[in-house]
Amino acid sequence: MTNSNVPRILLIGSDGQVGWELRRSLATVGQVIAASLTGQEGPAVDLSQPDSVHQLFDATAPDVVVNAAAYTAVDRAETEPELALAINGTAVAIMAERAAARGIPVVHYSTDFVFSGDTDHPYREDDEPQPLNVYGQTKLAGERALLDSDAPALIFRTAWVYGVRGNNFLLTMRRLFREQSELRVVNDQFGTPTWSRLLAEVTAQILYRVVQGELDMARVQGLYHVTSAGATSWLSFAEAIRDLSDADCRLLPIASADYQAPARRPAYSVLDTSRFRTTFGLTLPDWRHSLALCLADLR
Ligand SMILES: NC(=O)c1ccc[n+]([C@@H]2O[C@H](COP(=O)([O-])OP(=O)(O)OC[C@H]3O[C@@H](n4cnc5c(N)ncnc54)[C@H](OP(=O)(O)O)[C@@H]3O)[C@@H](O)[C@H]2O)c1
Q: Span 269-277, mean pLDDT?
């Protein structure tokens, strides 16, 4: 750790759903350097440009790195595979190289979309990934770049992220409930809605223990599945949002095949979080519980 005892935490992607929550949660762990594409709250970085990533590390000399930035436009990635790979794969490989050279911990997020969804049991970390779309392929490349490096890294695979800002299903549904009296929602894809704040809080708790020396990165580094508990379909998730928001909109089931999105999505991508809960001794609340808390925040 540099000069003082306060670790310098380089947060990359501080404007995103998870990044924005991390800005607040990580403030109890150390000095947060909030890097983003726009550079509004700290240094600017464009992950599609390798030089920009190197410059960020040179300029900030971090003690810890948390990467919440990603190319997350799942459908658009089908027509922009090089850009998605540059941001989700190549840039992460550079972070891995720079973190390995400094011997500093890295936290990175990945996705349930690395799996094909061709199963009916919650996926474990050692299940074989088989992405159905470009986004999933590029996120898998990022995971592998970190795992194949000497960087002490925690990779948190999560799913169906929503929160009080950004592009997400919760905010889209609430807008549509105001605009329409009837909506069709996919009911043949199953997963676990996960509040961005939950991800930020567990990340901060774990990093606090790491920087305090209570948790040995050499022992815990690796891949973990982190979502809320439970599972649901997009339709049931929409129903829960509607009911908890006192909205009045008729929801009708639609099959994924009828929705015609450019990117294929896994039909079943529930993640088994037992490795995470056992290793870190943390409880992950039921998705409905987190949803209610998030909605209370929106009131
Ligand atoms: N959202 C989900 O449902 C979901 C599910 C599973 C896993 N994840 C993973 O969770 C992590 C956080 O996702 P999120 O939902 O918080 O995503 P998000 O809201 O889309 O945030 C991603 C951030 O990355 C930034 N970014 C995009 N391109 C960039 C570039 N070239 N250089 C620098 N920054 C760039 C975006 O900036 P702009 O907004 O300015 O483009 C945005 O602030 C990601 O690793 C994602 O893959 C998300």
A: 97
